[in-house]
Amino acid sequence: MNEKVFQLLEFSAVLSRVASCSRSEEATALIRESRPLRVPKEVEGLKAHVQAVLGRINSGDEEPRSTIPSIGGILPKLKVAGASLEIDEAYALGLFVERGDDLKNWLEKGEGDPRNPRLVEKIH
Q: Where do the domains of the chain lie?
């Protein structure tokens, strides 16, 4: 696909609508930068994974949906040996890890359902 096709299909509008549902600035950026897959097998695999995750979300089991704090500005600091974080940065990083772990554990609980195989595999 080329840019003309993207414009015709209003791809940027679709991405904006999907990005508006994200829970973090990083996820929003990833969504806005994404492009369609071109290999049919990759498309089928992603589609099956999304259907499995949606099945888990629609299962009625309480999903741990929380806002995930932005840590994009913190990540460069973590690469520097001996660097220290401000208390709010350390807290944001802790919340990010905790909430991500809660979501991962919730998804893993749904893997016993044959309709939802390997939900967590794509997250790692």
A: 1-36, 39-124
